[in-house]
Amino acid sequence: MALDRKIAYIDLTTGEIETKPIPLELRKKFLGGRGLDAYLLYNNTKKGCDPLGPGNTLMVSGGILSATCASATARTHIMAKSPLTGLLGSANMGGFFAPELAWAGFHHLVIKGKAEKPVYIWIHNGEIEIRDAGDLWGKTTTETQWAIREELGDEDIKSAVIGPAGENLVAFANVMTGIKNAAGRTGMGCVMGSKNLKAIAARGTMDVKIAHPVEALEYNKRFIDQIVSAKVNQTQGALGTPFIWGATNSWGGIRCRNFQYNQLENADDIEPEAIDDVCNETMGPHHMTGCFGCQVHCRAQYKIPSGPYAGKYDEGPEYTSQGAFCGEPECRSMETLLTGNHLVDQFGMDNLETGSIISWAMELYELGILTSKDTDGLDLKFGNDEALLEMVKRICYRKGWLGDTLADGGIPASEKIGKHSFDYMIQVKGMNNLHSDERATPALALNIATASRGSDHLRSRPAIDLYHLPEEVLRKIYSNPVPYDGPLSSEHTSYEGKPWQVFWQENCYMAVDCLGICKYHTTFLGATLPNFEDWPKVLYYNTGIEMTPREIWDVALRCNIMERLFNLREGLSREDLKKGDMLNHRYFDEPCRRGARDVIGLKIDRKKFKKMIDEFYEHHGWDENGVPTPETLKRLGLDKEPSHLL
Amino acid sequence: MEKILMINYQKCTGCRLCELVCTVMHDGVSNPSRSRIKVMKWESEGLYIPMACQQCDDAPCMNVCPVKAISRDEDIGFVTVDYDLCIGCRSCVAVCPFGAMNYNVIDKKVFKCDLCGGDPQCVRFCEEKAVDYVDASRVSMFKKKDAAKRLSVAQKETMCLQVAV
Question: Which CATH architecture has domain A251-432?
Fold first, then answer.
């Protein structure tokens, strides 16, 4: 049974390992994955712990549906206190790791302490061993995975690993699996590096019993039909996420030259179709690949066609790589895009944060805040492809003053650089924003301002807000499973009803993160995709747990509060620019300069933004400071946290 | 008419849903180590090839079995194991040229693809049709057509080049 999967506590300081069942009571309260991780984080770390010290706790998990007969439940979730933000650290990746962990007997790992020398954790059919990783240290993400397979003699081993960036404690280092699946936000790879933990390797051949196999199989077929019939997923399956970047760039919703423009002009050479041409030429017509059990297959395969890395195989590039290596630094070279993507994959470094922080440095260089003395002679101007790629390497290996400074992450770097450099950083809670521009879309601005892990689109973005769906369609989606009769607007520039949409999406995304489902299989990019109404059956057929849509909604509410409680404990306060639900002043002061006619000139209205935050807190049952009220905590059974049940 | 599993490895995305549904269908569990179909991967090159039983006419597994536990179902055309006769000697595993006869260490039994009795679930769930179930006589026609298409594209490209020159 999925519910038989255990939790393991691994202390890297003492080498002690303890395994336990996960009580059903906690399953019903938090399901699994990110939600249960949030409970574990709050209960297993002390206030103010050093993110890079042995007191930080690293959670690694699969969702409750991991390795069951439910489509696209391959997500691995990783959580700890973030070395990048000092607040909640949380990242999620696809691939094949979480199901393998489940077949090896586990859904959750809680890793504490710090190993004396490099180690990796080997998990095999219920057994856990801490092994020497001396020979693995220094290897790239893929080299590490292949070396572990070689050492243990099993090609089916799946590993979650760090690359050189994690070893060098780059504050935004990834945990990775496969070629490019990355738990890439908030520096979870940095936490692994600080614990001298190079990898977690899993291999399992244990049955995961399906509660009602015949029904689960049939329902999964229905689910897949619903998912692949969505146009947006067909496009994802043909072009991957670059299609979103291309579409967003066309109306002026991406970031260019840090935050100076909201569109990259003359981008033909790196548009999704151009990327697809390279994939076709280097990998043939069938070049899309997928995570475990997923029929969307959104990852493109390619070989770098030219330059010093010509012939190297990789996957992607995603929206974020187009942002990082094209839009933001204003570069337009396919070779730079594919090479930059390859470097961050191999180093194990968040492409999003990397692109944001380098383009921020480029703007500082343009303004004279950074000089060629600071860059060791590197001409770090916008549009300099060579300097961009050189900077990626310098950050990973902490080379030169600037490389070392940027590797510490945005806020520490701005404090070291000084001279109002912070004013130019497009971040929330210390994490840089996706390479998208939210000045024309108040709902999206509210999303990044309030996202629990810092500026991020995957926590609550109502992406369908851009589709101008009729109000009755919006109402159908957003008034389930809890009734909502407040305002809803089809207009993406409106402030009306947006707090409810963001609140609803936040719960929706939390629910999929607890179940372990990928966001392309819910109401994210497609309005017709499964959500609360569809999940109870998937859950019941696969695990036997009976829950109503409303109960799953409450799980999501509860888990969002656990994350909120952690952030509040670590110092979140509403209007704090570095630790709060607040946007950089440029959102309010500088209007959009490019894009569609109804986008040019738009910026976020401070007063209306404040009102949106008030409403958002109210929907959550939080007070005006964003603190959950005692009644809300009581209603959701969280009034005794930390309760230390696990 | 006899139908066979046709594998077009170029179309495989490597998701392994076929392995999952195979074990849910046959064993009521999720466990790819029990799967009758298995995607072989060369991850560093992005190459994935699903492998399953070819249901050979002159099947080596059938020929080698010392207790005649393996026979051919003439209706559906699959090679099947009679577990009442099987002694678990694994000779069939040793001789199969495709690695399609498996041995399950949990149940201590050999096992292989039975085409799900005529409605193979791997095919039903593979949207890409990297695994397909087609009339045996049609396989070469599909391949001919694919090859012809490639030739035609190549020919058009050559002509374009000539015009450009």
Answer: Orthogonal Bundle (1.10)
